[in-house]
Amino acid sequence: MNAVSKYIVDHNIGTMRQQQQQQLLRLELTVSQILREYGKKFTQIIERYSDGRNGRCVIGLIMSYHGWNGKDDL
């Protein structure tokens, strides 16, 4: 796969993720609904937003639902 093809694939994947997130946001879920539905994707941790290994605390989970990538960088 050349660089242009890889860019197109990466762009399409990013676009699909954004569309999925927008669809979820349109549902206007409550916090408890977000925790029940979206929380299944992560391991629960405490005292930090993320453990760097796909674990999230509750605040990290809510932030991830709204688009946070799990990293502390801005």
Give an account of the 3D structure:
The protein is mostly helical and 74 residues long. Helix content is 54%, strand content 5%. Strands 1-2 form a two-stranded parallel ribbon. The mean pLDDT is 75.
Helical proportion? Answer: 40-55%
End-to-end distance, in Å? 31 Å
According to DSSP, the number of beta strands is 2
Strand order of the largest sheet: 1-2
Major sheet summary line:
2 strands, parallel
User: What's the domain count?
Assistant: 1
Tally of helical segments: 3
* CA-based gyration radius: 15 Å
- How would you spell out the order of helices and strands? HHEEH
Note poorly predicted spans.
none
Structural class: mainly alpha
Shape descriptor reads flat
- What average pLDDT do the residues reach? 75
What share of the residues does DSSP label as strand, in percent?
5-15%
